[in-house]
Design brief:
Elements (H helix, E strand, L loop, with lengths): L3 E4 L3 H13 L3 E7 L6 H5 L2 E6 L10 H11 L3 E3 L9 H9 L3 E2 L4 H8 L1 H10 L7 E2 L6 H11 L3 E5 L8 E4 L5 H16 L4 E5 L4 E10 L5 E13 L2 E7 L6 H17 L4 E10 L9 E7 L6 H8 L3 H9 L16 E8 L1 E2 L5 E2 L2 E2 L2 E3 L5 E4 L6 E2 L6 E9 L2 H13 L2 E3 L5 H8 L2 H4 L7 H5 L1 H4 L6 H11 L13 H7 L5 E8 L2 E11 L2 E6 L2 E9 L4 E6 L2 E10 L2 E6 L2 E10 L12 E3 L4 E6 L6 E2 L4 E7 L2 E6 L4 E5 L7 E2 L4 E5 L6
Parallel strand pairs: 1-2, 1-4, 2-3, 4-5
Antiparallel strand pairs: 6-9, 7-8, 7-9, 10-11, 10-13, 11-12, 12-15, 13-14, 15-22, 16-17, 18-21, 19-23, 20-22, 24-25, 24-31, 25-26, 26-27, 27-28, 28-29, 29-30, 30-31, 32-39, 33-35, 33-38, 34-37, 35-36, 37-39
Helix pairs in contact: 4-5, 12-13
The structure holds adenosine-5'-diphosphate (ADP) (2 copies) and magnesium ion (MG).
């Protein structure tokens, strides 16, 4: 076995590889870009080497720098993770030319499967069923249009060099074919530098079912059963599971055999995934599954296979790369229970899954389930890399059991400081069709708005945010948890009004303290009365109408996140009575009330602006924050630009001094 390996990746997969290597007594070398100097994977590995600036093209895709790092550190082998260089045959050759072992398949096997058209032709020859369509050389418009007619609409145009759902267009009628072809080509050309396409039959009710395969250098190939990845949004996986719901033993055997045939046809060694699409318009049928593509690497969703087989696939990768035979034969492999994986992303499902950036002010994931993550509280999600924050993996005796665990775990995810899809994932678990195992790739698209948008905060959540804004949920100064409420008692019947921004709208909350630990919060004419009992840390227990409820409230400067009832809600303090507006904008200056991304800048130096005019829009926390001119005046300077990530308190815009106007 190797004594030391280099991991040519970042984030959760780099951390996950370190864990297995450590358990096996193998030393690890991490690589990192400048943006990742303090990243979790760097700290976890035994050594770390800088390979370039933040841009992936100059760091995690920088073959010479990575190979040099491997040589300099004395690593014997390189694990590529997924994404980045994992399916790049030139990288494999560069690693091997340096006298090192690539932990994965041969450059030739990767090449054979690298282009979807060539892979399909190869699979046809190996007797693996492929999606009906045209995957030949000819690319002229009229010819491809004719092929589409022959296939029958709807059809799917795919970039042959495609990946990550890019360069893919569904076309429903002949009249739309030419325009779709042009736009698919354009996208493919810019994403992959290869505009060539294939045309496929678009399955009426498709399910994505893939088979995990493993080969070794001794001619053995086995499959580790299937995963169902049909829960997708825009051709991207959202929740995966193993095994596939409704799978029969016969169909599993047929798919497993086809996948093994595919891998054997290219002399495959290491971990790979053969992706099939199944037409389930008449249920799962053994004669209705077709090869789509093969991913010649470890897959993001490999943990569900680990959960149901009890195996460590990274350990298998290391053993095979070190020349050992596969640890188990096909007949020694069995399925135990059911597993799910949900991909937790920094993104906004309600805004077309727009990636989010920002600092993870709160990052508190549940115990008792497997969490694969590459970040920790306080880390910043930058725009440079994939915005996946963590994978939440559950295992149960039955599908219902594993799904209930997943829903519970997602509801206990507390992530603050940026927008995530946690609420969306939890709502997905409750979709009746999903719960029933009646999945297909169109399920999320059909489910509608209610699935995408988080519900607004309840009055209790508003009330807690207001109390936090006024400082009454801060950690107590002394050992007595009542200390923090003491100052409040001095108020007597006095009232304070606090202004909070939620999702771009401002809310005024009037707080009175009728006595003791009782509070009355008025908001939009609705009064909420609650009794508060401070609990540990950031948790509070409140009593509303005799109903005891638990919540947790996190404050980070002007940013407040309330976790309550399985939801998280982000607020920003925009002002307090008497000082309204000046908390964020101090007279001549507009400064960032919290860390975030500058989205829109509407004024330039010299422009005359009116009080209240929207000048800068920031994206921070779960919201867009519109910052308006504090008074009439002339803009003196705008030291930020669209796309800048700014720290709390950073100057965004200043006005000429009053006298000069
Ligand atoms: P999977 O089926 O395992 O999800 P994908 O093709 O979607 O496979 O990609 C796996 C991961 O690698 C994703 O997180 C994706 O963002 C990332 N990825 C894919 N292609 C690239 C690339 N060229 N460069 C960097 N990351 C990539
Ligand atoms: P990528 O390289 O982007 O992963 P795939 O060929 O694996 O591309 O397709 C991605 C997804 O697109 C599949 O998981 C499936 O949801 C959908 N898809 C692909 N081919 C078809 C098809 N012929 N009919 C219907 N949906 C398809
Ligand atoms: Mg795919």
């Amino acid at each position: 076995m190797f004594r030391k390996i280099l991991i040519a990746n970042r984030g959760e997969i780099a951390c996950r590889v370190v864990r297995t290597a450590r358990r096996m007594g193998i030393a690890t070398v991490a690589v990192h870009s400048d943006a990742d100097r303090d990243a979790l994977h760097v700290g976890m590995a035994d050594e770390a080497v800088r390979i370039g600036p933040a841009e992936a093209a100059k760091s995690y895709l920088n073959i010479p720098a990575i190979v040099a790092a491997a040589r300099a550190s004395g690593a014997e082998a390189v694990h590529p993770g997924y994404g980045f260089l994992s399916e790049n045959p030139d990288f494999v050759e560069a690693v091997e030319a340096a006298g090192l072992v690539f932990i994965g398949p041969s450059a030739n096997a990767i090449r054979a499967m690298g282009l979807k058209d060539a892979a399909k032709a190869l699979m046809e020859k190996a007797g693996v069923p492929v999606v009906p369509g045209y995957h030949g050389e000819r690319q002229d418009d009229a010819f491809l249009g004719g092929e589409a007619d022959a296939i029958g609409y709807p059809v799917l145009i795919k970039a042959r060099a495609g990946g990550g759902g890019k360069g893919m267009r569904r076309v429903d009628r002949p009249a739309d074919f030419a325009a779709a072809l042009e736009s698919a080509r354009r996208e493919a050309e810019s994403a992959f530098g290869d505009g060539r396409v294939l045309v496929e039959k678009y399955m009426a009710k498709p399910r994505h079912i893939e088979v995990q395969v493993f080969g070794d250098g001794h001619g053995n190939v086995v499959h580790l059963f299937e995963r169902d990845c049909s829960l997708q949004r825009r051709h991207q996986k959202v929740i995966e599971e193993a095994p596939a719901p409704g799978m029969t033993a016969e169909m599993r055997a047929a798919m497993g055999a086809a996948a093994v045939r595919a891998a054997a046809a290219i002399g495959y060694s290491g971990a790979g995934t053969v992706e099939f699409i199944a037409d389930v318009s008449e249920g799962l049928r053994q004669d209705r599954f077709y090869f789509m593509e093969m991913n010649t690497r470890l897959q993001v969703e490999h943990p569900v296979t680990e959960a149901i087989t009890g195996l460590d696939l990274v350990e298998w990768q290391l053993r095979v790369a070190a020349g050992e035979p596969l640890p188990k034969r096909q007949e020694e492999l069995a399925i135990d229970g059911w597993a799910f994986e949900a991909r937790l992303y920094a993104e906004n499902p309600a805004r077309d899954f727009l990636p989010a950036t920002g600092r993870l002010s709160v990052f508190d994931l549940p115990d008792g389930v497997r969490i694969d993550s590459g970040v920790r509280a306080g880390d910043t999600i930058t725009p440079y890399y994939d915005p996946m924050i963590a994978k939440v993996i559950t295992h149960g005796r039955s599908r219902a059991d594993a799904l209930a665990k997943l829903e519970g775990a997602l509801e206990r995810c507390r992530v603050g400081g940026l927008t995530t899809n946690a609420g969306f994932l939890a709502r997905l678990c409750r979709l009746p069709a999903f719960a029933a195992g009646d999945v297909d790739t169109g399920l999320i698209g059909r489910a509608g708005e209610g699935l995408l948008a988080d519900p607004g905060p309840s009055e209790e959540a508003f009330a807690l945010a207001a109390l936090s804004a006024l400082g009454f949920l801060d950690a107590p100064a002394g050992p007595d948890p009542w200390d923090r409420l003491r100052g409040f008692r001095l108020w007597g019947e006095a009232a304070k009004t606090v202004f909070l921004d939620h999702a771009g709208a401002e809310h005024a909350l009037r707080v009175t303290v009728p006595g003791g630990e009782r509070f009355r919060i008025e908001h939009d004419g609705i009064a909420t009365e609650m009794r508060l009992q401070p609990a540990d840390g950031r948790s509070v227990r409140m009593d509303v109408d005799g109903h005891a409820l638990a919540a947790s409230v996190h404050r980070d400067g002007a940013a407040i996140t309330v976790f309550f009832g399985g939801h998280s809600h982000a607020f920003a303090i925009t002002g307090e009575a008497g000082h309204h507006g000046e908390a964020a904008a101090g007279g001549d200056r507009l400064s960032a009330p919290m860390p975030g991304l500058v989205r829109i800048v509407k004024a330039e130096p010299g422009a005359r602006v009116a009080k209240g005019e929207a000048l800068v829009t920031m994206e921070a926390m779960k919201m867009e924050l519109v910052l308006a001119a504090p008074r009439d005046g002339v803009v003196a300077a705008v030291p930020v630009a669209v796309g800048d990530q700014v720290a709390e308190g950073a100057l965004l815009l200043s006005l000429e001094p009053e006298e000069a106007v």
